[in-house]
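@channel sequence for tomorrow's demo:
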Amino acid sequence: MTRTPTKLAALLMLLVGTAVAPATAHATDHVAAPAADTGQTYRIVEAGSGNVLGAMRSGDDPPMTVDAYADNPDQLWRIADAGDGYSEIVNDGTGKALSTVNGGSGNGAVVHLWDYLTTFPDQHWKITDSPDSTVTLANQGTGDRLLSTDDGATTAGTATQLWDQVDGRAGQTWKLVPTTLTRDITVHTGDVVNKVPKTTVATGMEDVNHEIYGGIYSQMIYGEAFQEPAADPGVSGMWRSFTTGSARATYALADPFKGSQSQRLQFTSGSGSVGVENRGLNRQGLSVVAGRPYDGKVTLRAQTPQRVRLSFQNADGSKVYAHTTVTTSGTGWKTYSFSLKPSNADAHARFAIELTAPATVDAGYAFVEPGAWGRYKGLHVRKDVADAMVAQGLKAIRFGGCANSGCGDVPDYKWKTMTGDPVNRPVTKGFWYPYESNGWGIFDFLQLGEAMGIQAVPSLNIDESPSDIADLMDYLYGPTSTRWGAQRAADGHPAPYTAKRFELGNEDAVDETYWNKFKALADVIWSRDPSIKLVVGDFTYSDVITDPFHVTGGGKVNTLAAHQKILELAKQYGAEADFDIHLWTGQTDGVLGQIKALDSYAYWLGRLAPGARYKVVVFELNADSHDQARALANAYAINALQQRPDVDVVSSANALQVEGQNDNGWDQGLVFMTQSQVWGQPPYYVDRMKASSYRPNAVRTELTGTDDSVFDATSMISDDRRSLSIDVVNSSAQPLEYTATLDAFTAAGDATVTTLSARPNATNTSTNPLNVAPVTSSLTPDPGGHTFTYVFPAYSYTSLQLNGGTPAAGGR
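structure tokens (generated this afternoon):
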């Protein structure tokens, strides 16, 4: 068994707004080997010294040690039946199982904690009574070697291992002492710790894994500009050639309409037809709906007028669902509009450009999209995808990432390439795809935000020139009498845009070089409009910052000197500078440590330039997964960040993903899709639940008897104090029962309980899109409406919503 150790974050600072008190555990006498009872906790006491087995060391994958008991849930254990006389021994604080490192079985194998994997024998223990009222714990995977202390030492801090039973050796016998653990959640509804921004429910998008092209963009053709290297001889790579009847053809990649090549079709002899066909993203097929109109454009060139047939067909071309004909002008490149209405529905259709008589025609661009029926509010956006994002409850979206900076050379990512008629926009080399058509870019994104009624934050290339940024200000906000204001109107948006937040770069080294580039652009922007919020494209921080000019764990940053200059510049203009920090949220382990580092980062921002206005924005909760474990980590991070006054937007990367087309890694989309279907992944439902539970005031929430790295609660109350939500993350492997006390709030009626619970690696698929989905139930508070008891399932995110209010004077 190979298991890679996971770094456990050191808990270096208290969470703002969430107080964690030690467990209250009352010991009784040792008991014999217990029957399985996951509700009972035990101290496992080394018989000779009285020290207690626990997970008390920090660092990378630490061993279990024996230490003096400290009222810590990491020193308490649950015992469950594993079958065949063996037990699973689970740490109460972490929810992880007592195991050996990498399944080691020999003498000296180190004992640690790991997720319970059911079938691995090193996680199964035989508990055997001894005549002296102690027990031994024998490991199934090792020939029943015993849980032992290193070299028989029993002093506090001694690590544990496996060893053969040796008569008289200390550190091999233990007492199981049952405890009564008090687990409490106390919600202090009158103690507001933060005014929560609605924008803590947000997602980001760029073209990773075809979020845009082949994803939300309503354009059905993939490879629309014929730029991909040939697959069939002489045929652009996303297209294939075909002939019917006795027709003979030649194909070539000819002089381009744009980019480096266009597609030449030549019908040389015979009868029938010759053509090229496209099946969408990576040739997965086009989804067409019977009786619905589709609109298109095709750019063609021929030396003389020629008839060109355009059609929807089934996958092998044996059935034609719709067709039309355009006649070329014979005067060079020209774009022709057309419409098609298929007679049949087909999720795997193709689009064909076809000659039915001898001729030579060049194709430079092709575009097909659903009519208004299939687009979101008239935009070039798939309606089903946008509808899913609306249902997600998003309050902000971000456009950018590696596509525009921070991960590689992207000199072609410039705003001007995204203006004008998409037919004529240049083909550029993108970070995620080398043949970007720029058909859907920054301004399409801003229009999507407007249509959804939410904040849209685009990222700009930090290497844009100041003169081009001055033009951008005119394009966004200028009157139509200006050159670029007129271009905005020509592009279909005569009114000025309303966006007032822009990111400069992404995941950059925020150093002297970045500062000089930032200042050059900020001077242009802030001199025009100091109400625009500029976001610094920073990256990640893993270590708490104690000296802002000597930073460790900052990735590309080792000092906040450039940050100080940016804050001073913002203060000079009376503007706000925001700073984008990214968190890793593949699992809850390690998230708390990053939050602590973020706390220290925000602390120093407030002291480097007193009086400067700033916020921390988290534009990427990042992972390489879209499963339940990632959902819980996202929920944990959002919970924590909703309590922090310095944090504004919290956005999960990435918003979208096409199933089966994971070309770029970063397998982390929240909304999944095929060409004909859309569904949510577990982290999607976290956002939806968070949107539902939103109240504008985060209140102090105190936890007792918990490990705050795996269990967390955030509570929010409405301005009128009539509605309260409590959002709880339990990422441990055990269900945990808590008693909640509502201070200065009386619940009226039942609480609505929404729970998202599943095994950590569970996901949703096109064939089982609701495998993981929220379940709603109700909970009746105790008489009086001030307390209730609830069992939070293992691996769960639970949102409880209560109506009521502040009790009358003299009440609790």
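heads up for whoever presents: The chain is about 15% helix and 35% strand.
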